[in-house]
Task: structure prediction
Amino acid sequence: MFAEGWVVEVAIARRPETVTRLRELETAADGETDVRAALSIAAEISSVRRAAAG
Result:
């Protein structure tokens, strides 16, 4: 499990545009109070991580 997570992190780190987008999403999620917007942000983060894993 750790190794799989690490592979995803490395794949993300190799793409600066992906790192930037994840930071933007994390920042947006931090201050979000609307549940629907938060779910949308979480879905996009999940999508980025799945793409990096695949």
Q: What stands out?
A: The chain is about 85% helix and 0% strand.
